[in-house]
Amino acid sequence: MKKFISYFNPLTVLCILIFLSSCTKKFEDLNTDKTKIVVLKGKELDKLFTTAEYAGITNTDAGAGGYQLLHSLYTDEQAQFYACTQPRFPSDRNGMVGSWLDGGWGAFLTGATTLASILKQTGPTSLSPDPERESVAKIWKAYIFLPMTDLFGPIPYSQVGSGEDIILYDSQDAVYADFFKILAEATTEINGNLARGTVFADGDIIYGGSLAKWLKLGNSLRLRCALRVSKITPDIAKTEAEAAVAAGGGMITTNGDNAFMSPSPPNYLNPLGVISDWGEFRMSASMESVLKGYADPRLPKFFEPAANTGLFKGIRNGLTIEQMSDAPNSPDNNSNVVSRFRNADMATEPFGLFLASETWFDLAEAKLNGWNIGSFTAKECYENGIAASMQQWGITSYAGYIASANTPAPYTSSNPVYNAPPMSNIPVAFGTTEDVQREQIGTQKWLALYPFSSPEAWAESRRTGYPKLYPRLNNENPDASLDPRSVKRLIYPPNEAIVNTKGYESGVQLLGGPDKTSTKLWWNP
Amino acid sequence: MRKLPNLFCVLLLLMGFTVNAQTRTIKGRVLSGQDKQPVPRASVLIKGKSRGTTTGNDGSFSLNVPTGDVTLVVSFVGFTEKEVSVGNDETSIAVELAPSAQQLSDVVVTALGVGKSKKTLNYSTQTVETKDLTKARETNIGNSLSGRVAGLDVVRSSQGVGSDVRVVLRGDRSFSGSSEALIIIDGIPGDLGTLNPDDVASMNVLKGSSASALYGSDAQNGAIIITTKKGTAGKSMAIGINSSFQLDKAVNLRDFQNVYAQGSGGNYLADAEATWGPKMTGQTVKNWSIDPKDSNSTYALTPHPDNYKDFFSTGKTFTNGVSLSGGGEKIQSYFSYTNISGTGIVDNNKFNRHNFNFRVSGNITDKLSFDAKITYFYQKADNYIKSDEDFTNVNRQITRLPSNISLDYARSHYQFENSDQELKQNYWHPHSNGGENPFWVKYNCTNFYETNTVKGLASLNYRFLSSLNFLVRVGVSKNNDNNESRRFFDTYVMADNGYFDVAYNNYTETNTDALLSYNKQFGNFGIYANAGANVKHIESRSLESTAYPLVNENIFTLNNAAQGGLSSYEGSGKQEKQSLYGSADINYKNYLILSGTARNDWSSTLPKDYWSYFFGSGGLTAIISEMVKLPDVISLFKLRGSIAQTGNDAPIYGTKEYDPINPGGSISLSTTKPADTLKPEISTSQEYGFDLSLFKNRLGLEFTYYKTNSKNQLISVATPPASGYQSKFINAGNVQNKGIEITVNATPIKTRSFSWVASVNYAKNDNKVISIAPNSPEFVLRGDFINLTKIVEGRPYGEMYSRGFERDSATGKPIILDDGRPEVTSGKSVYLGNSRPKWTGGISNRFTYKDFSLSILITARMGGRITSFTDANLDGDGLSARTLAGRDGFIVDGVKADGSKNTTSITSEQYWNVLGGRNTPAGELFTYSASNIRLRELVLTYSLPQSMLGRTPIKSASISFTGRNLFFFRNDAKGFDPELVVSTDNGSIGTESFCLPYSRTFGLNLNLNF
To answer: What is the pLDDT at residue B163?
Structure first.
């Protein structure tokens, strides 16, 4: 027996150990997911750029969640493209909903950090530097960060994508300074290497990688940025604007050069198309007043007649829940966005990013500022802007409109408590005083930016005071009022204070005021 | 599988050894005289010599004795010692031990399937009486455990018949992993959902990790050890038939208002989803139907108070099972088949299940025995109920039905064909974002689920010495399931142009074990030791394809997807864990028992340097009543204590960064930062307690104190989104659970014809999150429209926050805005309480009078809070009776910003519009205590007396009337059942969101044995 046990134990243990040790060799292989990429290389970077493009405009998924939270619920309503018809949404009454801000912020940063990875992998210190790809990525960086700094002020910028646990914020002036720097670098680099033709190939779903078109977008964007800082740093604004106009490659001045993003179903769709069938918004009273008063031929291109009445109708911003239940304010009695952009589950209409009309209105304002933009007069620029917008919407007969003396119409409702006189008496025909001209430029740019670019429209509305918008009917934000420009910024997403506490504190400090909607941004006069 | 030859090689080698008998050999089996079950590890000694052996798990022994007559002394704790004389010519004996009057005799199955006398254990276990599980049946046996075991908490999800069940022992401990108990069926990991209650021979709950340390990482949350039935040797064929029929009756606990119609501000609106309209007085109004045929039609506004109740029908479940059992000395077999078919309380929710079980066991030679089992499980569910916010959750839509709408009219008009021959939904608010006709959802948004599980088990046992036993076992479990969802065209928001989703999952788990047991008595000392090895290999594949939107109307096939509308998601996983383990029990005179276990795991999911991790347990049992003479009134007094450590590996694929490819080929970056220093989780637990049995076992008391610390948890913590990651894996945290468990068993009355047996259990758990991670004082478990459920440092697990009143700091009263409406906090900053119960308990009583027996189970789950998202919606839309007050105006009790008393009147519509509703409700108003006490189960059984059965082939027959969830003695949540939650994940306990109504179950059960 003793003999047996002494044989048995070592033998068994040995056998067991053999069968065990023979297998851990496979462990590393077992624990590797083969349906995903571990190390990105070569052309895979092009396909990563696609994600940086879609997510950069907060369109991270087919549900368009990020876009709804920031664009539809905040900038669309603050710019008064639309008014809210969803009873449970407080944002049209200036209410800040933390979880929405968290969602929109996260969606944007998915794009921004993806872009940071591309910049890292194409930059001078990478294993395979690629200055043209890097330059296109830089232009896209300025394009996507601009609306974010204009929503919040100081934002995570230079440290985005670092992988660290604390991401400090950059001040808004530093962010703008870097926009000018990277736009100058990128446009210079591309201009010198246009012969290369394209980069990113079909991974770029804006321009198919055309360097010539990216160069135009870079120059146009530089002018947009310059105008924004024209009151706080007029000298820098002038220098940058004139450099943008004079730069090689030109700007987006014809609709053929417009920047449109092409959806690729099923995961990336036109975000406006996805959310517009949910009955949450309708044409604003401000839109109705201007479009109807001007007899604007774009009205039926922008909106569709109300389902119940067949008429074009808008509603006031800032309705209470009870007012939303009032029949004249019901969605079916008012105009939704035109059906082209209303196709929830297969929204494949291209999404506008930067249009020729805007460049012309920007040039018109630059001219009024006394900047050197070449031989065009402010009037020519203004009228070219209207013409470009009309053509873009397929309207060929607009000469009468440009010369029209029509003024915005009063807003009338079947329930007269909502009635209001027009907010402005300016006509379409270019005015004679600078104040009128500036208001006309602001108003027409607002129309030209519809329906895609409400972040830009809201930023310009805060900067210029144009167009003149109806006051909100209700406000439930103690730091705001009925004044349509009382919200100066959005508060930081509450999640930042939890997961990036030190970063959040750095942002509030750089903001130079409390983290409230009443604190003005750096560039805001 | 390629390890198998090695194992068999070992076995064959071992079988090659034979021991030359110097003396003659006696073989035998020791059984309990009471229930004829084998008595494992009984001591068999040769009288007059301090030499002998102990019995194996099956009660058998083999002993070399000197030639000539001998007397064997057979003893085991809990039984009266017995002397058996064996004649010189006898080679085989059977010994029946009588349970000793003074001692508890229950043998419980512990880790690795080892049967041990309960009184020798150094940790707390509880055996579940299987008798009632087969009568008052639950389709998931987990539901039957509620209230029967101290420290075991059960909640279930709201998906209709066949819903998920969550079984947690001694509190939650894992941040992101599961806190659920491990289920072991015949030695192999399994699940409760696929188990046929008829096949269960015994069910034993090992609560702490001391008990389950041998199972390693998977059992750090405790384990439920289930042994299924085997054929019994030496009996003629036994046939059992079990049939039952159960009715499920939905009970409306909600209080709807039946006064006001659809509309706002007192005005009727045919397309309103809210009911702030006029009083219903029979006035004629425009019909809501949007079918052109109904245009210009009208109807009279009258309340329909029974809409909700009438929507639900009586659920029916039929269960029919048969079992065959029998065999000779060499081979025994057991076969069972059970079919369950049923209809839920939503009458197109149908359910069907087949369980097959075939088991053969026996002896090949005197030394070599085998046990083989194959089970097949098939289950399908038509139209299972979606839960929570899903717009196709039928319960969401029926709860929101305005009282002025006739249920019958909504049913007969839920769809129509338009002039283009397209099928359209008919709903009072066309294209609503959140509302659908309940019947459209019921019939046109359907879900199908099917699952197949085959399990094979084969084990060989070689007993090459009476004291030495070797077992090899292979278990393979293979599961395939598929899932389909369809949504018709014109399902608002969810599928304007249809939706079709199909998913297939394939899962295979292989367990290979080798176990060596040594068992020997040396005079006053006994040793029982095990050494074993296990390889667990898991492979899974899944494929899901979604066609959305579709082209041709309501044709549900993937090819019907619109261009670009087809997306597919694949999953694939392989993982392996290898283990070596050992355990030893050393006893002195059977009253002092020292036990220890040790285990080393190697897991493929950890980084290379951390593949291997070790843990173990130790404990001591002292049976005081056998050491010293105690007063006669004390039958047993035992002290026990143990300390254990268990480790757990990581989720699969956590060590590398993976960039996923989106449909169409674009690439996204990984959102999770991997940790290359991922360490295994370590959970340390200790428990101490005593067992006391008085008055010849008429009164028993068990008390346990435990404390568990789960450290080094592998959690994915949120990182700043700007860092490039949304989360990262880290090892951190320390969650502590401590508590007490008390079980009292009593037999207050026991006469020839009447007996009363009562059992009471109570468990209180104090949970505290001592730390989470550096710089992370919080960890979010779930965030939804209404609540944030979080883990917060220094607080118990599962804290809930929501919006609420902004309050005046001086008076604590709500702050009222100038227009008279209360101000609501903008963020979810108001603390609502904790979602977990403070204590749970149960009282079960069994009364037996002659041939009748009545058992009653009352359970309590006390403390903890639950938020009703349903209430927030009902109140926000004026559908509940609570919104009747103040319809014509009232003044909210609160103060204005300047501190003065509010004097501005608002209507209840204005009030609830601010506080209720779907998107930003103030959860403060919709949160209740989750405490409830209910009559969980009632079973009345009549067993036909033997005098009636005497001449028939029937050995026994009984008929039972059963009831489950009969009523609440107390339910603080009033409007709903707080144990029916959105889902069984960690964050959802404490959230009721459009769950199915509470339902009562009544049944009839017939049991025949031939």
So the answer is: 67
Residues of B in Cβ contact (< 8 Å) with A114: 668-669
Stretch (H or E) spanning A286: helix A285-293
Q: Is the minimum CB–CB distance between A414 and chain B shorter than 8 Å?
A: no
Question: Which candidate, B200, B167, B195, places its Cα nearest to that of B181?
Answer: B167
Q: Which residues of B touch A13 (CB under 8 A)?
A: 531
- Worst-scoring range by mean pLDDT, A131-135, A379-383, B71-75, B539-543? B71-75
Nearest-Cα distance to chain A for B7, in Å, is 8
Tokens of B146: 């509620």
For residue B332, how many C-alpha atoms fall within 13 Å in the half-sphere facing its CB? 18
pLDDT of residue A8: 45
Q: Count contacts between A and B (CB, < 8 Å).
A: 272
- For B498-555, the pLDDT digits (tens) are 999 999 999 999 999 999 988 888 888 989 898 999 999 999 999 999 998 899 999 9
Q: Which residue carries 């680099």 as its tokens? A: A189
Q: Measured between alpha carbons, how far is B692 from B625 in angstroms, rounded to an integer?
A: 9
With 50 as the cut, is the pLDDT of residue B260 above it? Answer: yes
CB–CB contact B7 A19 (8 Å): yes
3-state secondary structure B691-747: EEEECCCCEEEEEEEEEEEEEEEEEEEECCHHHCCCEEEEEEEEEEEEEEEEEEEEE
Residues A304, A308, A309, A310: is their CA dihedral positive or negative?
positive
Cα–Cα distance, B939 to B1005 (Å, whole number)? 10
CA distances from A54 to A58, A330, B562 (A): 7, 33, 21
Which among B736, B665, B595 has a CA at the least distance from the CA of B171? B736
Q: How far apart are CA A298 and CA A283, in angstroms?
A: 13
Chain B residues within an 8 Å CB radius of A332: 271, 430
pLDDT on residue B432: 87
- The reported pTM is 0.81
| Residue B660 DSSP class | P
Residue pLDDT, tens place only, B360-383: 988 888 889 899 999 999 999 898
The interface predicted TM-score (ipTM) is 0.86
DSSP secondary structure, B389-408, as one string:
T-TT-HHHHHHT--TTS-HH
Closest CA in chain A for residue B920: A88
CB nearest A346 (choices: B13, B549, B828): B549
**Confidence band for B312, pLDDT divided at 50, 70 and 90:** very high
Beta-carbon neighbour count of residue B958 at 10 Å? 18
Please state, in angstroms and rounded to a whole number, the distance separating the CA atoms of residues B530 and B127. Answer: 23
Q: Residues with Cβ < 8 Å from B752, sequence gap 6 or more?
A: none
Tokens of B669: 């970056």
Reported as a pLDDT band with limits 50, 70 and 90, residue B764 is very high
Residue B431 region by backbone torsions, left for phi larger than 0, else alpha for psi between -120 and 50, else beta: left
Question: Which of helix, strand or coil describes residue A239?
Answer: helix
Lowest mean pLDDT among B26-40, B473-487, B627-641, B716-730: B26-40
Residue A194 has pLDDT above 60, yes or no: yes
Give how far A498 is from chain B: nearest CA, Å: 8
Which of B412-416, B672-676, B785-789 is least confident? Answer: B672-676
Q: Where are the alpha helices (DSSP H) in B201-254?
A: 209-212
Q: How far apart are CA B954 and CA B240, in angstroms?
A: 10
Among the partner-chain residues A44, A98, A160, the one whose CB lies closest to the CB of B667 is A44
In this prediction, residue A132 carries a pLDDT of 96
Cα–Cα distance for residue pair B803/A517, rounded to 1 Å: 20
The answer to whether residue A33 neighbours chain B at the CB level (below 8 Å) is yes
What is the number of other CB atoms lying within 10 angstroms of the CB of residue A63? 14
Are the C-beta atoms of A409 and A314 separated by less than 8 Å? no
Per DSSP, B901 falls in state B
Q: Which H or E element spans position B530?
A: strand B525-547
